Automatic annotation (TrEMBL):
Highest taxon in the source lineage: Eukaryota
Domain Retrotransposon gag: 2-94
Protein name, UniProt field: Retrotransposon gag domain-containing protein
Region forming the signal peptide: none
């Protein structure tokens, strides 16, 4: 309890030193602090973020894991069990990353203990941090290819119309 004031800064530090009566127990200080800086509405909003966290299409497993852990750290008193936290994280993953994690866990991740599941996810996220290809690059390449294919299916001048007919109907047309 003596070290707690050194962990505070700004408004939180001012709040602590402006208390009319000093706190006698850690529990009292914790409850009062959380009521002041984490009102019920803020806690509810953060818990909703945890429940509904989703991996973005261009987000790597490592980036999603970091985002999830930051979200949980913002609200240390969320009171969500470790098993549910792992479930929310897993359900928010892309199908590809879910499959990759299940394959690495030799079965379904949700059949593992929360500690084992967290350890597995941590290791996989760490391992893919520098080696997982950027999904966006592949998507951009597909878009360019699709546009090039579109040019072949819609001829714009006489020469390209002839090539188009030769390509699709054979050289005799």
């Amino acid at each position: 309890m003596k070290a707690f004031p050194f962990s505070l800064d700004g408004a939180a530090k001012d709040w602590l030193y402006l208390q009319p009566v000093p706190f006698n127990t850690w529990g009292d200080m914790k409850c009062t602090f959380l009521e002041k800086f984490f009102p019920a509405s803020r806690t509810t909003t953060i818990k909703k973020e945890i429940y509904g966290i989703r991996q973005h299409p261009r987000e790597t497993l490592h980036e999603h894991w970091e985002k999830f852990n930051k979200c949980c750290a913002i609200c240390p008193h969320h009171k969500i069990s470790e098993k549910l936290l792992i479930q929310y994280f897993y359900e928010g993953l892309s199908m590809m990353d879910q499959s990759m994690i299940d394959a690495s866990s030799v079965g379904a991740l949700m059949d593992k203990t929360p500690a084992t599941a967290r350890h597995l996810i941590f290791n996989m996220a760490s391992n893919t941090q520098y080696f997982q290809p950027n999904v966006g690059k592949l998507t951009d390449r597909i878009d360019i290819t699709s546009e090039a294919t579109c040019c072949w299916t819609t001829p714009t001048n006489h020469c390209s119309q002839s090539l188009w007919h030769m390509y699709f109907y054979g050289a005799h047309h």
